[in-house]
Specification:
With 278 residues, this protein is α+β, with helices and mostly antiparallel strands. 26% of the residues lie in helices and 15% in strands. One 2-acetamido-2-deoxy-beta-D-glucopyranose binds next to helix 6. Keywords: Disulfide bond, Endonuclease, Hydrolase, Lyase, Nuclease, Signal.
Length: 278
């Protein structure tokens, strides 16, 4: 409890320091690398369950969160995504390249809670390849105006929501613990989140295990339901959640010594499939 409070206090301090330093005010760039995209309707905070993703890690590297000696046992951040109510989303909205310098004060917090779970670099909108954070900022962050104006605010907003709505804690308070093999009714997982968060989540699975859990927010950053129907017809059966699901753990020791890189991650990662909300 004391630990938790201390961590929260430290985070509040970081945000305060940034605000005081005026780092949040970055001049607006000329918009539009491609055709104009209309303003988004709501946000989706996408969280990943490392136990499921890291189970398929074959090779390791320093930048891969799966390769830490201590296994990740909480949901980590994938990204904050602006979405449309019709099931589609804007992407790559402004010619604003990711700059690590702009978020240096957040580096430690991002490393801890927003790690890449792969070794390969990610595709970016304007510079080709880059770190996981560059992909998220360029593809999604640049479409988050007018709520989010710049890179620093994008990462700060996502971290704030992540700290405020701790899904791992919501689940364990509702009796849903991480444990290898134990099955939980999908409806119980959904109801637990609904009750604690105040909106229906979207859950994405991989072979019966939770891969992602997504929380939705209106533009005032208040909880709302995620979409419950598919309107654009993109369905990926692979990501569909069965009636009973697991939140597996993984063994990092298996991964400790290898160094080669693996697989690209974003090919079919963000398909709005398996919209599991009750
Ligand atoms: C969320 O809750 C879990 C379980 O109580 C805890 O281990 C974790 O540190 C919390 N995460 C954050 C970001 O506070
Ligand atoms: C992995 O590395 C450790 C420490 O360098 C070493 O002791 C161990 O034998 C290695 N394991 C394998 C399977 O190579």
């Amino acid at each position: 409890m004391a630990m938790k409070t201390a961590r929260k206090a430290a985070w509040v301090l970081v945000v305060w320091a940034l605000a005081a330093a005026g780092l949040g005010s970055v001049s607006a760039r000329a918009p539009l690398g491609r055709e104009a995209q209309r303003e988004f309707d709501y946000f989706k905070l996408s969280l990943q369950w490392p136990g499921t993703i890291c189970a398929s890690t074959r090779y390791c590297c320093a930048s891969n969160g799966c390769c830490r000696s201590e296994p990740l046992q909480t949901f980590t951040i994938h990204g904050l995504w602006p979405d449309y109510d019709d099931g589609t989303w804007p992407a790559c909205c402004r010619r604003t390249q990711f700059e690590m310098d702009k978020i240096l004060p957040l580096k430690e917090t991002l490393d801890k809670y927003w790690p890449s779970l792969f070794c390969s670099s990610s595709s970016t909108c304007f510079s080709g390849k880059g770190p996981f954070w560059a992909h998220e900022w360029e593809k999604h962050g640049t479409c988050s105006a007018p709520v989010v104006q710049d890179e620093l605010q994008y990462f700060t907003t996502a971290l704030d929501l992540y700290f405020k709505y701790n899904v791992t804690e919501m689940l364990s308070s509702g009796g849903i613990q991480i444990s290898n093999g134990k099955e939980y009714a999908l409806s119980d997982v959904i109801d637990t989140i609904k009750h604690a968060f105040g909106g229906s989540p979207q859950i994405v699975c991989k072979r019966g295990s939770v891969e992602e859990l997504r929380l939705c927010f209106d533009k005032e950053l208040k909880p709302r339901d995620c979409l419950t129907t598919l309107t654009n017809g993109i369905v990926s059966r692979r990501k569909h959640c069965p009636q009973y699901i697991t939140l597996p753990t993984y063994d990092p020791l298996v991964l400790a010594n290898s160094t080669r890189e693996i697989m690209t991650q974003f090919n079919d990662f963000e398909v709005p499939a398996a919209l599991y909300t009750s």
